[in-house]
Amino acid sequence: MSGQGVGRDSARPRCLVTGATGYIGGRLVPALLEAGYEVRCMARSPGKLRDHPWARDVEVVHGDVTDPCSLEEPLRDVDVAYYLVHGLSSGASFEEADREAAEAFAERASTAGVGRIVYLGGLTPAAVPGHELSPHLRSRAEVGEIFLRAPVPATVLRAAVVIGSGSASFEMLRYLTERLPVMVTPSWVSTRVQPIAVGDVLRYLVGSATMPADVNRSFDIGGPDVVTYELMMRRYAEVARLPRRLILGVPMLTPRLSSLWIGLVTPVPPALARPLAESLRHEVVCREHDIARYVPDPPGGPAGLDEALELALQRVRDAQVATRWSSAAPPGAPSDPLPTDPDWAGGSLYTDQRALDVDASPRDLWRVIEGIGGDNGWYSFPLGWAVRGWLDRLVGGVGLRRGRRDASRLRVGDSLDFWRVEEIEPGRLLRLRAEMRLPGLAWLEMYAEHGAEGRTRYRQRALFHPRGLLGHVYWWGVSPFHAVVFGGMARNIARAAQKAAAAEPGAQDPAPEEAPSPRTR
Fold first, then answer.
1. Which portions of the sequence form the region Disordered (predicted)?
2. Which of 107, 118, 205, 278 is 20 to 30 A from 160 via CA?
């Protein structure tokens, strides 16, 4: 995508938001717009922001914090730069990568004349001899120190558990509590934490943009309640009107075992659950509330835990989840372009293609296509899809249970079970890229087209680009099941569309929506 962007409006301070495709960044952008700021979003894949409701109101530029040369354009003429990028890899090198990215960003921001850097990190406990921070909390703290030592004034906000619809912390809490009336839990459930509502996090982030130039420090941010994780689960059960939960602590459960247990019960994969579990080993309670000097508390103070839980749960029930923890692509997710012919990259490209005429309008067919996944499933061999998801979780993948952000609407960049929406042409095309662990790259395309004699045509194409010999073995090993999986999917999607058409005999087929076109460059 390309575009000219808008000219600089000196009356409106310009904010750069990195991590705009992520959970907090995707919510911060509309909050900044509402506060009257001019917003520029930096993304490695700008197209992922195309379908956000605020896409037309921002400028989108390409940039990658791991590539210092790509930061010059995003940081030009910026007053406040929000750094909302975190490494979530479990590899040994993620701390070094985080350090180098923060140092490069600070240096380039100084060269560009940025007025302030705002960073959201993790709340760390008071130093205790012999008690080391988890690697991820240690890295968050180090990144904050890098910005505080840089020439550009910095605001470093330090938060513990963020409670909001779609946050990893909330979904972990929600699924553990809802699915397990009796829980055998690790010792960290008795650790004290100070959760904060996502709305208060956004209020502090927006307010940080107007801090005096001489302020260069970190601030602890949290809600009014200090609780244990066990108490949070009990409070969630009360808010959700669930029966009282029986919670039994087992001290020998290590963070690694805890992450596997979380991955088994919740949609949060072990790769993300592990840093969360490691962080919960530490008591993280605010030691000051100095932020109120610069960002005054609202009437009544910050939201309490029960209020935050009730609001988050209501957003989930009303299908009004703006962003989810899975909004950002997981570490190691493929970014190669979709192959367009069998000679792509000089290698093999396997395809499975299906097409059916459907006695329904393209609109009815499109509704079924756009509603695929999540609670609606994949329209064929449910056990097979479930087993594939379980196997993916066992090898550290995202699994099938990430579900959907919205029950009926998709946008580019959305996670969809173990797929991600790579392209969507409303009313016509949905292209998904696989994010499960595979010895190659895979895509699934679904089309709603006008067929012959006024009928509707459903077309489906699965593509697989193998990586090495194992990739070829994988394709031929699963190909005997394609007739059941892909053939059954095509037939059942067609039937679902026909059933929907029969339920709406007078429905008209509207023209496809025009996809939003943000200002990008």
1. 324-346, 498-521
2. 107
